[in-house]
Amino acid sequence: MADQGRIDGRTKLLGLLATPIGHSLSPAMHNMSLRKLGLNYAYMAFEVGNQQLADVVTGMRALEVRGFNVSMPNKTKILPLLDELSPAAQFAGAVNTVVNENGKLVGHITDGTGYMRGLKEAGIDVVGKKMVLMGAGGAATAIAIQAALDGVAEIAIFNRDDEFYARAEKNVQIINEEMKDVNCKATVHRLEDEEALKAAIAEADILTNGTGVGMKPLQDECLIPDASWLRPELIVTDVVYIPRKTKLLEMAEGVGCKTLNGLGMMLWQGARAFEMWTGEEMPVEYVKEQMF
């Protein structure tokens, strides 16, 4: 066992592949946990986009890195670069955690469970509720699948008419046709259809931004045009955690909505990844005290 915070010849590497990455709290969270438990690992952040991803994954494999996280925009692009996917990752078509199992890179997805655990910790019961989910990328897909598994009754997915729209359609098909044991109805709509989005929000219990809108360099943007679309009894959540209050959350708080940023999701998805890499439980309460 290494001294607290000291790197030696036996230190194992963990990391994060994403862009932009400077805002990420993952390095602090994981390294703090590793030091607290006296585990001989180091977690580093690497600025990596789609163009560099294949080369970087090859390098991670060659260096025998123990594991790494994957964030935007790499969660779907990394799939063909891995040796195996967990059932959940295969179902969601996205990966946010990779574990090196003796040379075999296995992809997992912990975003959905992290998001739902964050809601539970905030005292939010999702069973039987209606959700509007904006987005169909890796994180949003994981949320959609896990929300259906956890008892959400209806999910209206809205996505721009772009390369991810087909994924939104696929998510709806999976929930409605392939997930036989869930009692959830999913629908898909174009985000450009403001009339449909406004009507769906008016009937929803939970509104979730599952996109990067609200995070730098889009920190001044919001997918909802104005606060008149919101009402006090609506719960508004965001996967973005830097800034802590996105424009959407500020707007929602102004109306009196209960709001939740992406910190809980980040914390709990990270805790699951930490356990897969190290075999130890992340000291979550310690991390909360130190960081939040």
TrEMBL record:
<dbReference type="GO" id="GO:0009423">
    <property type="term" value="P:chorismate biosynthetic process"/>
</dbReference>
<feature type="binding site">
    <location>
        <position position="241"/>
    </location>
    <ligand>
        <name>shikimate</name>
    </ligand>
</feature>
<dbReference type="GO" id="GO:0008652">
    <property type="term" value="P:amino acid biosynthetic process"/>
</dbReference>
<keyword id="KW-0028">Amino-acid biosynthesis</keyword>
<comment type="similarity">
    <text>Belongs to the shikimate dehydrogenase family.</text>
</comment>
<feature type="binding site">
    <location>
        <position position="96"/>
    </location>
    <ligand>
        <name>shikimate</name>
    </ligand>
</feature>
<feature type="binding site">
    <location>
        <position position="262"/>
    </location>
    <ligand>
        <name>NADP(+)</name>
    </ligand>
</feature>
<feature type="binding site">
    <location>
        <position position="71"/>
    </location>
    <ligand>
        <name>shikimate</name>
    </ligand>
</feature>
<dbReference type="InterPro" id="IPR013708">
    <property type="entry name" value="Shikimate_DH-bd_N"/>
</dbReference>
<protein>
    <recommendedName>
        <fullName>Shikimate dehydrogenase (NADP(+))</fullName>
        <ecNumber>1.1.1.25</ecNumber>
    </recommendedName>
</protein>
<feature type="binding site">
    <location>
        <position position="269"/>
    </location>
    <ligand>
        <name>shikimate</name>
    </ligand>
</feature>
<dbReference type="InterPro" id="IPR022893">
    <property type="entry name" value="Shikimate_DH_fam"/>
</dbReference>
<feature type="binding site">
    <location>
        <position position="111"/>
    </location>
    <ligand>
        <name>shikimate</name>
    </ligand>
</feature>
<dbReference type="Pfam" id="PF18317">
    <property type="entry name" value="SDH_C"/>
</dbReference>
<comment type="pathway">
    <text>Metabolic intermediate biosynthesis; chorismate biosynthesis; chorismate from D-erythrose 4-phosphate and phosphoenolpyruvate: step 4/7.</text>
</comment>
<feature type="binding site">
    <location>
        <begin position="24"/>
        <end position="26"/>
    </location>
    <ligand>
        <name>shikimate</name>
    </ligand>
</feature>
<dbReference type="InterPro" id="IPR036291">
    <property type="entry name" value="NAD(P)-bd_dom_sf"/>
</dbReference>
<feature type="binding site">
    <location>
        <position position="239"/>
    </location>
    <ligand>
        <name>NADP(+)</name>
    </ligand>
</feature>
<dbReference type="Pfam" id="PF08501">
    <property type="entry name" value="Shikimate_dh_N"/>
</dbReference>
<comment type="subunit">
    <text>Homodimer.</text>
</comment>
<keyword id="KW-0057">Aromatic amino acid biosynthesis</keyword>
<feature type="domain" description="Shikimate dehydrogenase substrate binding N-terminal">
    <location>
        <begin position="16"/>
        <end position="98"/>
    </location>
</feature>
<keyword id="KW-0521">NADP</keyword>
<dbReference type="GO" id="GO:0004764">
    <property type="term" value="F:shikimate 3-dehydrogenase (NADP+) activity"/>
</dbReference>
<dbReference type="InterPro" id="IPR011342">
    <property type="entry name" value="Shikimate_DH"/>
</dbReference>
<keyword id="KW-0560">Oxidoreductase</keyword>
<feature type="active site" description="Proton acceptor">
    <location>
        <position position="75"/>
    </location>
</feature>
<feature type="binding site">
    <location>
        <begin position="135"/>
        <end position="139"/>
    </location>
    <ligand>
        <name>NADP(+)</name>
    </ligand>
</feature>
<comment type="function">
    <text>Involved in the biosynthesis of the chorismate, which leads to the biosynthesis of aromatic amino acids. Catalyzes the reversible NADPH linked reduction of 3-dehydroshikimate (DHSA) to yield shikimate (SA).</text>
</comment>
<dbReference type="GO" id="GO:0050661">
    <property type="term" value="F:NADP binding"/>
</dbReference>
<dbReference type="InterPro" id="IPR041121">
    <property type="entry name" value="SDH_C"/>
</dbReference>
<dbReference type="GO" id="GO:0030266">
    <property type="term" value="F:quinate 3-dehydrogenase (NAD+) activity"/>
</dbReference>
<dbReference type="GO" id="GO:0019632">
    <property type="term" value="P:shikimate metabolic process"/>
</dbReference>
<dbReference type="InterPro" id="IPR046346">
    <property type="entry name" value="Aminoacid_DH-like_N_sf"/>
</dbReference>
<comment type="pathway">
    <text>Aromatic compound metabolism; 3,4-dihydroxybenzoate biosynthesis; 3-dehydroquinate from D-quinate (NAD(+) route).</text>
</comment>
<dbReference type="GO" id="GO:0009073">
    <property type="term" value="P:aromatic amino acid family biosynthetic process"/>
</dbReference>
<feature type="domain" description="SDH C-terminal">
    <location>
        <begin position="262"/>
        <end position="291"/>
    </location>
</feature>
